[in-house]
Amino acid sequence: LILLIVIGITIISCNLFDSSDDDNSENDNLLCGTWVKDSSYNDTTILKKSNELNENKYGFIIYSNGEFVERKNAGWCGTPPISYANYDGRYIEKSSDILEITIQENDWSGESRTRINYIEIISVDSNRLLIRHISAQEIGMQRELDILNNDVTIVDVESYYSMYQYGNTLKMYNLKNQNTVIKINIDNESVDFNIVAEVNIFEENVTEKLINGWINNQHSDAIVPEVPNPIGTYSIPEQSYSIISQNYINHTVGYYGDEYDNYDIKIHFINVINEGIYNLKSFTAEALVHVLTKNINNQ
C-alpha cells in the first residue's frame, strides 16, 4: 500500500499542466525526465529520452518540482568546436502546450543575467519529444511598458533610517498591469548624478500586495517577509538615458550638521527594447536629489 501511494504521488507531481483531459494528462507525465537533442527540422527540435545529458549535445532535464536544467552552448560563438555547460533554472506552464523557462547564466563578459525562453510542446511520447523555441512576441508575453499609459504607481525615496537627513534618491515605477517595476537609483555624492536604472519583471500570478512588499524592502528597515524576487532583473543601458536638466533649488542643513545642495533633475529615457522580454517606451523621470556637500564629520 505504501509503495502504491508513493507511485501515485510521483505520477501526479510530474503533471506540468493542470488539465482535466485524460490524453493531455498522459502527455504531461511523459515530459518529466532527461531529453537530449537528436536532430532538427526547420524550427522544430527533436529530442530523445535519455538516462543523462550528453556532454556534447543540447538537452535539458524537466523535474517534477519545477526545476529545469538546460545544457547548451557555453560560449558566444556557434562555430565548432562548441563547448557546452549546464544552466539551472525553473519552468512554469503558460498554457496547455507552452513552457516559460527562466535560466540564470553568465553572458560572454562574465556578467550574470536572467534569460527567459519559451518552448512550445509539439508532441511527446515515452521516447521522443518535439519542441519549438518561440519568442515572447509570438505568444503575446513580451511586457509592454508605458509609463504614460499603464496603470502606474510612483514611489520616491530620499530619506532613510540614518543619522543623515538624506541619501541617494530612489525612484520606482510600479506598472501594475504588467507586474513590472522600473527602479532608478540616483547617487547623491556629487552633481555628476550617477544613475543606475533597471527593469524588474515578476511572474504574472504575483499579487500587487506582494510587489508592494518588494518595493518596500528596497528602501525600508521595516522588512516585509516572504516577498517574491523578480523572475528577471535587466539593467537599462547607460546610453539609453541622459539628464536633460538640473536646477538648483536651495541648501539644507541636517540635524547632525550634514549639509546638502538640493536639485531638481530630469532624466530622459529613450525607447528600449529587450527583444522577447520587454518594450520600454520613452519617458522622462523627474527627481529631487540632495547632493551631500558636508558630512557629519565636517568634511
Helices and strands in order:
Elements: H1 2-13, H2 22-31, E1 33-41, E2 44-50, E3 59-62, E4 67-73, E5 84-95, E6 98-106, E7 112-124, E8 128-134, E9 143-145, E10 152-157, E11 169-175, E12 180-186, E13 195-201, H3 208-217, E14 232-235, E15 241-253, E16 259-269, E17 272-274, E18 278-280, E19 283-294
Question: Overview of this structure, please?
Answer:
The chain is mainly β. It is 11% helix and 48% strand. It has helices at 2-13, 22-31, 208-217; strands spanning 33-41, 44-50, 59-62, 67-73, 84-95, 98-106, 112-124, 128-134, 143-145, 152-157, 169-175, 180-186, 195-201, 232-235, 241-253, 259-269, 272-274, 278-280, 283-294. An eight-stranded antiparallel β-barrel has the order 1-2-8-7-6-5-4-3. The N and C termini lie far apart (75 Å). The model is unreliable at 1-13 and 15-26 (pLDDT under 50).
Short description:
With 299 residues, this protein is mainly beta.
Notable features of this structure?
299 residues, 8-stranded antiparallel barrel, 5-stranded antiparallel β-sheet, 3 helices
